[in-house]
Design brief:
Blueprint: H1 4-13, E1 21-27, H2 33-44, E2 50-58, E3 63-68, E4 85-92, H3 99-110, H4 119-126, E5 132-138, H5 145-158, E6 162-168, H6 173-179, E7 186-189, E8 192-196, H7 201-212, E9 222-231, H8 235-246, E10 251-255, E11 267-268, E12 277-278, H9 279-291, E13 295-299, E14 303-307, E15 312-316, E16 321-329, E17 333-335, E18 351-352, H10 355-358, E19 366-370, H11 374-384, E20 389-393, H12 403-410, E21 415-418, E22 421-428, E23 433-440, E24 445-450, E25 453-456, E26 460-462, E27 492-494, H13 506-525
Helix pairs in contact: 3-5, 8-9, 8-13, 11-12
Length: 527
């Protein structure tokens, strides 16, 4: 199953393990049981500290749990002498595809290895009120699922009363149907849907705090004072921090998640001198470059407000604070929501943002795609191969996508296009969408179409909510900057997709971050 070269790489990855990690597999007559056993056997061969143990318990589907500590006398026998402690992590199904990485990281997390949050975030996790027992339903083809799976598995290894069972929806169709799940990843506690769809580590932790409560109130903690604080960890933010540090300035980065939107990008072919790379790889390389300098990185944080004049005081949503002589804002943008009644209530239950991840849930069903740009038309084309009918809504009087994509969509027999359509409401019962309402902007007539799902593809929204009323923004929320990256407030600079720069590209964001940092240094020298 795993080729020799990959097994050799895993041997290097697991070389630093200090504890015994036990993969305790239940017996099963499921058709995929042999595949799971082969995978875990090969995985355990990469380190003497990884042991496979087969229990006497039966499971209708392939299932194993991860334990740490203790000794295993016979790794393959049910009667092995083992008294390890549960990590709280279990997998139901065979974690191949995107989720194999989640399995590898879970083993590292169990031993306290891998990329760990800083002490402040770890304490927030430990402060969650237990017991917490979750099931995370995912699809092996889902590109957004691993981030949620990995975040919850990390939390399980940190919190003493936290369990997360990772469930491949393909082996749990009855549960998927009874829970009304129409999107992945879906995080469930009991029969309650906690969250569905893409979400950052920070927002996921906040959602768990809201759902289960926290035993300790957030303390007012200062993260220190810096010459330059960069808000945002994407290409612009990383570039700005590196250039600031190279000037000898004490520099910090505050980021919701390092890499930003780049982490969600698959193939990248227009980063000059790099013919091809992928978003996750580029994000990792950005972090590696940042870590080569004395830059403090505070991840999984969001700025609540900014105050002060000569010295800028930042209050974070976590209750922490940080001070800086200069700020560089590079918070980028996020996927825009429709903002209509019924949308939020049905996210993951009929409202989706990723055709690739959630499209399989709509096989043979009717769907609407909102947005006539490249992303919307591409989503409609993909869904036409799965759904029985696809209707594309475009707000304007013509699609904005590339001509070749529009022509391909027009040639599909089960796809139709509605222009001058303003989506006004998503209709459903809280568990399932059954229709969408829209305004025909030409006739001003309100119309309704019966559907099973809505895919929203209407572009990006600048992450500037915390800046409203503080500095100048465009009506679309972009930060107004001069040619050198200065904003309307002295000592505050901005770079990348969050600003009024005309082209939103990785390469322009990198240059923009460098420019803002050099301008901040120039102003400091002439102050």
């Amino acid at each position: 199953m795993l080729d020799s070269q990959f097994l050799e790489q895993l041997t290097g990855v697991f070389a630093a393990l200090e504890q015994t990690i036990v993969l305790k597999m239940k017996r099963s007559t499921h058709a995929n049981q042999s595949e799971l056993k082969e995978m875990l056997t090969e995985l355990s061969s990469t380190s003497p500290n990884i042991q496979l143990q087969e229990s006497d318990e039966e499971s209708p589907a392939p299932y194993f749990e991860i334990f740490r500590g203790g000794e295993v006398a016979d790794a393959t026998s049910a009667g092995a002498n083992c008294s390890p402690a549960s990590t709280g992590i279990a997998f139901r199904g065979v974690p191949g595809g995107h989720e194999f990485t989640s399995l590898v990281l879970s083993i590292l997390y169990a031993d306290g290895k891998g990329k760990q949050p800083d002490a402040g975030i770890l304490q927030r996790i430990r402060n969650l009120k237990g017991p917490i027992e979750l099931k995370t339903y995912m699809s092996l083809s889902c590109e957004n699922c691993p981030e949620v799976v990995q975040a919850l598995n990390l939390m399980a290894t940190v919190h003493p009363d936290f369990k997360n069972e990772v469930v491949d929806g393909a082996v749990a169709q009855d549960e998927i149907e009874s829970l009304g799940i129409q999107g992945v990843p879906s995080v469930v506690s009991g029969e309650r849907l906690i969250h569905s769809g893409k979400i950052s580590f920070l927002d996921l932790l906040a959602q768990l705090e809201k759902t289960f409560g926290t035993s300790v109130m957030a303390e007012k903690t200062s993260l220190g004072q810096f010459d330059v604080v960069v808000i945002g960890g994407g290409p612009a933010g990383a570039s700005a921090a590196i250039y600031s540090a190279r000037k000898g300035l004490k520099t910090a980065i505050i980021a919701e998640r390092f890499g930003g939107q780049v982490r969600d990008t698959l193939g990248i072919e227009n980063l000059i001198s790099v013919p091809y790379t992928e978003g996750a790889k580029l994000a990792a390389q950005l972090l590696e470059h940042v870590n080569a300098y004395p830059i403090e990185v505070f991840e999984h944080r969001r700025v609540a407000r900014i105050s002060g004049e000569a010295t800028k005081h930042l209050e974070l949503e976590s209750g922490e604070s940080i001070e800086a002589n200069a700020l560089i804002i590079a918070t980028g943008a996020k996927w825009r929501e429709l903002g209509v009644p019924g949308e939020k209530e049905h996210i993951g239950q009929g409202v989706a943002f990723c055709a690739h991840c959630d499209g399989p849930f709509y096989k043979g069903k009717k769907v609407v795609v909102v947005g006539g740009g490249n992303s919307g038309v591409e989503a409609a084309i993909d869904l036409a191969n799965i759904a029985s009918e696809v209707t594309l809504f475009e707000f304007g009087d013509a699609l904005k996508a590339d001509g070749v994509l529009v022509q391909k969509l027009q040639n599909l027999p089960n796809a139709s296009i509605v222009t001058n359509a303003k989506t006004t409401q998503v209709l459903g019962d809280g568990k399932k969408v059954h229709a969408v309402e829209y305004l025909d902007r030409k006739t001003e007539a309100t119309k309704m179409i019966d559907i099973d799902g809505v895919f929203v593809q209407i572009g990006l929204q600048p992450n500037t909510q915390f800046l409203k009323g503080y500095l100048d923004l465009t009506p679309h929320g972009e930060i107004v900057v001069d040619p050198k990256g200065r904003t309307s407030v002295k000592g505050i600079y901005a770079a990348g997709d969050v600003t009024t720069i005309p082209f939103k590209q990785i390469i322009t964001a990198m240059g923009d971050g460098a420019k803002a940092a050099l301008t901040a240094f120039e102003d400091r020298m002439h102050a």
